Amino acid sequence: MKKSLPEASKVAGLKSHGTLNPHPEKVIDRLFIEHDFFDARDSVQLKYEMLRRVRIEGVSVSQAAADFGVSRPSFYQAQEAFELGGLSGLVSKKRGPRNAHKLSESVMKFLEETMAREGFLSAAKLVPRLKEQFQLTAHPRSIERALKRRKKNASPPVSSTDAPDLVTDYEALREEVLGTASRSKGKGLVVLVRHGMRAWMKACDSVVEARPETQERAEGTGFCESERCELVGILSSIVMAHCLGVRES
Question: What does pTM read for this prediction?
Answer without folding.
Answer: 0.61
